[in-house]
Design goal:
mainly alpha
């Protein structure tokens, strides 16, 4: 009975580890996607500013 209980605890810990890993990977991917969007917006703003400056000259 003790061996069975230890095996069940091991399986539960493994499942919890896998779920936490998946959650943190998902949140990391989401943060990377958001940061790339911010960088794209900054680049497009810089391009818009340079176009405005070119049109003024």
């Amino acid at each position: 009975m003790d061996t069975l209980f230890a095996i069940l605890i091991g399986i539960a810990l493994f499942v919890a580890f896998v779920l936490f890993t998946a959650y943190f990977m998902k949140s990391t991917l989401y943060m990377n996607k958001q940061s790339s969007r911010v960088e794209e917006n900054k680049e497009s703003e810089n391009n818009d500013d340079s176009l405005k400056n070119d049109n003024r000259n």
